[in-house]
Amino acid sequence: MQIVVDLNRCQAYAQCVFLAPQVFELHGEEALMFTPAVPDGQHGHVRRAAAACPVQAILVGERAGPGDR
Known about the structure:
Distance between the termini: 16 Å
Order of helices and strands: EHEEHE
Structural class: alpha+beta
Radius of gyration: 12 Å
Largest sheet: 2 strands, antiparallel
């Protein structure tokens, strides 16, 4: 699973940080840091975080494998 966060849309409500702290981290008051390749065991947490984002700034997708286009 891969994620992308639209940092222009993100308003630092930090719901993602509360729901998936191993993937999302807030630095200071507004700088969101995240792991684009979601670790195993965190997929459910990340899906809940994406659904909870008030501005829908988190895009979730599956990782493309060799030969996938």
